[in-house]
Structure prediction request, 247 residues.
Amino acid sequence: MLLRDEVARDMRKSTPDFLHVIWPALQQHCPELKSGHIRIVEGGESEIRADLDIRAGIDAYQRWDCAMRGIACRVQWGKNYRSFTIRTARPSGKETEYQKRLAVLKRRDEGFLYPYWTVQGYLDSPGGALLSVAVAKTAELYLWIEHHEKHVCPLPRKKATKGGEGFLYVDWDLYRSSGNYLFEYPALAQRINHLIASLEEIGESEDNLDEEEMYLSEEDPGMQQAEEILTRRQLNDWIDWLEEYKL
Prediction:
C-alpha cells in the first residue's frame, strides 16, 4: 500500500472518531472547548479546505457566529501512550508538520494561519472507547519542543514501521512540568480514583475466595496477583509524581 493510501485510510478512521468520540468528551470536560461548533477540514474537496489542511495544518475549526479557531488533531488506536506525536521526517525529504509549524509560528505576527489548539486522542480501536485525550496550545507546544531539544536534551523519536516516516514524542507528564497549558482527560485524579476502586475490588474478591481458590492463588501468584501488583505500582508512581510537582 502506498503511503498516501495509508494516510487516506487513517483519515477515514480518524475523522469520525474525532467527531463522535473525542470532540464530545472535550466539549463536556474541557472548559476552553465547551462552546462553539466543530467543522472538519480534512478530506474536503474545495480549494479553501485543501489550503487550510495542507498549508496551514488546520484539520478542523471551532466556529462561533463571529469567529473561528483552528485545531490540529491526531487520533491513534490501541495502546494509550499519553503523548503528543509529531512528524519530523519524511522519506521524500519534504518539509514535515514540525518544520512547517515552527516556521509559521515564528512569523505569526505577520498574520500567517496556524491551528491554535493541538489535540491528540487515543482510542482502544477505530470507533471504540476513548482511552485519553490531551489539548495544548500549538505555539506553546512547538516552541517548547524546540527549546527543550536545543537546551535540555533531544526528545524520544521513532521511525514508523511502514513508510519510513519519523516522529518525536512529547510525554504529557513531562510537558505538564513546563507550566504551559495542558488539558488531559481523564485527569490524574480520576485515574487515581479508578485505580483505588480497582484495588478495592481486588480486595473484595480475595475476601470471597474459598480454600481451593486460595490454594490456586498461592500456587500461581504471578497469574493471580499480576493485576494487583500492576495497579499498586501505577498508583505509587502517580503519588510520587504528585509529590514531586507539589500538586
Summary: The chain has two domains: 3-186, 189-244.
